[in-house]
Design goal:
Layout: E1 4-7, H1 17-31, E2 36-38, E3 45-49, H2 53-63, E4 72-74, H3 81-84, E5 85-86, H4 90-99, E6 104-110, E7 124-128, H5 133-141, E8 146-147, H6 162-169, E9 175-178, E10 189-192, E11 199-202, H7 208-212, E12 219-220, E13 250-255, H8 258-274, E14 279-284, E15 295-300, H9 305-321, E16 326-330, H10 338-348, E17 353-355
Parallel strand pairs: 1-9, 2-9, 4-7, 6-10, 11-12, 13-16, 13-17, 14-15, 14-16
Antiparallel strand pairs: 2-3, 3-8, 4-8, 5-6, 6-7, 10-11
The structure holds threonylcarbamoyladenylate and magnesium ion.
Magnesium ion binds near residues 149, 150 and 158.
């Protein structure tokens, strides 16, 4: 299959006639059962018709994803929610009011309109109403319901640029819409509203504190920042149980005081270079010039969580591009957006963490 890439200017207020025609073409590809990758405000998604079981099968095949790992259905109008979800609690509408369109996914009971292939056999459905204008227009031209996991091969970091979608999906999908770098860089927060109190299954840009301003009570899946096996408990979002976001090199997260982390990592990389490894360090700006390794990448300044979130996945992929075999990463604070950052980093490391 030949994968076509079309560019759409992300910052422009209006689509040109050409851009609009490209989005219409993309929409008709999805409506006729094909796959199109597109930008959202979180990460690039791999879109297919959410109401077509054949499209869901194609998405799993293109990603190399286990078919028990359900897809998120993306909508572009609030009134479409009741076509795919039923027994919707009042709280869901308050959440929609506060955070939609935006980087938040709700788990609700599904209607018969949604095929079980899309939901990985579950009788619940994940629904998201993205704020990205390219995504919104594409969803509309696709018939209103687009199933879209992150547009990476299963296990790889989610793509934050179209070039990384192409790296993983060239020849496997019909079209890629290149809308430049995404804004947030980490996938949406997932909130399960089929349980009481509602529970966060995946941390993201919308934090527990933000949700608690709208809901009286919000729980968090205990496995989110656990040691990887959830003390014997499986994460409730099926996708959270898989090793994920992983670069090809072996990644270790190092936690401790800034000085201890610096000394430990420099000692490790020196030893490993002697043993013939190609070493990499993922760090914040503060200590950047005091580290020694073959490849040193700064993800942002400590405290600038939004910057770190935006760069994290691209930096993980850059280590691969440079053939790094051993990577050490500084740990980050887990307050606010930091929880989502550490959740992704620890998963990328297969929960290999050194606490000093
Ligand atoms: O920001 C995002 O959410 C991106 C963009 C493209 O919208 N999408 C995304 O999709 O991250 P994906 O497929 O990579 O991750 C979806 C997660 C998986 O962990 C999956 O197991 C979980 O959502 N999920 C989907 N449906 C679910 C359900 N009914 N119950 C529990 N978890 C569900
Ligand atoms: Mg994903």
């Amino acid at each position: 299959m030949n994968t076509v890439t079309v560019k759409i200017r992300p910052e422009a207020e209006k689509f040109t006639a050409e851009e609009d025609a490209a989005l219409r073409r993309a929409g008709s590809i999805i409506q006729s059962g094909g796959l199109v990758a597109f930008p959202t405000e979180t990460v690039y998604g791999l879109g297919g018709d959410a109401l077509n079981r054949e499209s869901a099968r194609k998405i799993y095949a293109a990603k190399g994803r286990p078919s028990d790992n359900p897809l998120i259905v993306h909508i572009c109008r609030l009134e479409d929610l009741e076509k795919i979800a039923c027994r919707i609690p009042e709280e869901a509408f308050h959440i929609a009011d506060a955070f939609w369109p935006g980087p938040l996914t709700m788990i609700l009971h599904k209607t018969a309109l949604v095929p079980s292939e899309t939901t990985g056999g579950l009788d619940t459905v994940a629904v998201r109403f993205p704020s990205d204008r390219i995504a919104g227009r594409l969803i509309r031209y696709s018939g209103g319901f687009v199933a879209a996991p992150s547009a990476n091969r299963s296990g790889r970091p989610s793509p934050t640029y179209a070039k990384y979608v192409l790296q993983d999906m060239d020849g496997r999908i019909d079209m890629i819409i290149d809308g430049g770098q995404v804004g947030i860089g980490l996938e949406s927060t997932i909130l399960d509203l089929t349980v009481s109190p509602p529970q966060i299954l995946r941390p993201g840009y919308v934090t527990g504190e933000m949700l608690r301003k709208v809901l009286k009570e919000v729980d968090t899946d205990v496995t989110i920042l656990g040691d990887g096996d959830g003390d014997g408990q499986a994460p409730r979002a099926p996708g959270m149980k898989y090793r994920h976001y992983a670069p090809a090199g072996e990644l270790t997260v190092v936690e401790g005081s800034s000085g201890a982390v610096l000394a430990y990592i420099n000692r490790q990389t020196a030893e490993e270079e002697k043993a013939g490894e190609r070493t990499g360090i993922l760090c914040s700006g503060e200590n950047l010039c005091r580290y020694r390794a073959d490849v040193i990448k700064c993800v942002g300044s400590r405290g600038d969580d939004e910057g770190i979130a935006r760069h994290l996945f691209a930096v993980l992929r850059e280590f691969d591009d440079e053939g790094v075999t051993k990577i050490y990463a500084e740990a980050f604070d887990t307050a606010g957006l930091g929880q989502a950052i550490m959740n992704r980093l620890l998963k990328a490391a297969g929960h290999r963490i050194v606490k000093l």
